[in-house]
Each structure stands twice: as structure tokens, then as C-alpha cells.
């Protein structure tokens, strides 16, 4: 099978559990390290799908690689090539397909529940997952749902948590987390952590039952990633 291209925008926000998931299924992937100066390819030849990870920047920042990634997403969507985005990656997908990205009413950081939007697409993509379950969040911006896309998830603090359109899945939340990644982010972003609130958990709160929470999160990731893989050729 052709490899999946995974776009990393900042060192600590790599593919995490997604890399383990793909490797366990003998699916090849290449990491495009934007943070190390890798260039965004302008061709999709020999590519099975695209994955866009998170990052502390905004998709509205005047960074040259953002325009290149938006163009590549539009090209992949036009060719029905599977595209997957996590947080910043989901925002990139929204903007590329005509949506908007703007500040969320509040920052959403830590373990918070999301709830299913009942429609045919959510039944297909979310399968037998519960109607409400906990996932990991770390964002201050949010996306709108592009025309033609179907919303899958919402949360108390962020109206749009996921949408699908064709073979493209955009997530505002982080289902790719491992326990090591959570601890790394708490260290890396420690100086930027806002004051604890209803939508922002403290470091202590985030670390409670971490391994158990990660196991549950990876069950959610398994469902979403397995469905997304059906679009790969």
C-alpha cells in the first residue's frame, strides 16, 4: 500500500497513538516535519492519505506552509483521497473546504465529554461508541462546519467537535494521545496554561486516572481510525 503522509507542526504534537495503530496494521506512513523545515509536497502521487496533527499556531497566522497545506487538502478532497485532522489539523480542513476558524468562547483543556450528533454519518463513523464519552482537549480556537459536511460531535464548551465530508474526517479534540504525550504537553506548555476553570483543568486534574483514561480514549480512536482506513486504497 502507498504510504500515508502525516504532517507534524510542532515537535511534541506528533502522531502518537495513530502511529501505533498504523504500524500494527502494516500501513506505511511518512512524517512531514514542518517544525524541522520539511516542505509541503505539491503532488499526491504515491500517497494513500493525508493526516494533519495539532500545533500551537493558528490556521489564520501568515505562515507560508499553511497556504500550502490548505491547497493540498483541497486537492486531496477533490480526488477523494482520505484526509484526517486533529485539532489544528481539523481547523486546517475546515478552512480549506470553505469553513472559518475563530476563537472559541473559552479555552478547552483537559478531559471533557463529547456527545454524538444523531444522524446517519455519526452512526457509520462512531459505530457502537456511547452517545457521550470523554476525550482529551487542548484548544483555544474552533472551526465551523463547511457546506456539504456533516457534524458528528459537540461538547459543552465547543459546539463543533468533529465533522465528516466524503473520506475526510476533521476532529477538534485529540484522540491520538498517549500517556507520555499528555505528560510532555503539560511540561512543554506549562507557562501557557490558563487559570483553572470549568473548561480548563489543572495539571493535577488532567493526570488523575491517566492510564485508564488513555485506554478509553484509544478505544474511541480505534473506532474512528478504523472507519477512516476504509477510504484508503
What does this structure look like?
This protein has seven helices and nine strands. The chain has one domain (4-229): Class I glutamine amidotransferase (GATase) domain (Rossmann fold, 3-Layer(aba) Sandwich), CATH 3.40.50.880. The chain has helices at residues 17-24, 64-78, 88-96, 120-126, 179-188, 203-207, 210-229; strands spanning 4-8, 29-33, 49-52, 83-86, 101-116, 132-143, 150-155, 162-165, 168-171.
The helix-strand sequence is EHEEHEHEHEEEEHHH
Helix-strand makeup class = alpha/beta
What does the largest sheet look like?
A: 9 strands, mixed
- Could you say what the CATH topology is called? Rossmann fold
The CATH C-level class name: Alpha Beta
How many structural domains? Answer: 1
Strand content: 25-35%
SSE layout:
Layout: E1 4-8, H1 17-24, E2 29-33, E3 49-52, H2 64-78, E4 83-86, H3 88-96, E5 101-116, H4 120-126, E6 132-143, E7 150-155, E8 162-165, E9 168-171, H5 179-188, H6 203-207, H7 210-229
Parallel strand pairs: 1-2, 1-3, 3-4, 4-9
Antiparallel strand pairs: 5-6, 5-7, 7-8, 8-9
Helix pairs in contact: 2-3
What distinguishing features does this structure have?
Rossmann fold; about 30% helix; alpha/beta; 9 strands; 7 helices; nine-stranded mixed beta sheet; globular
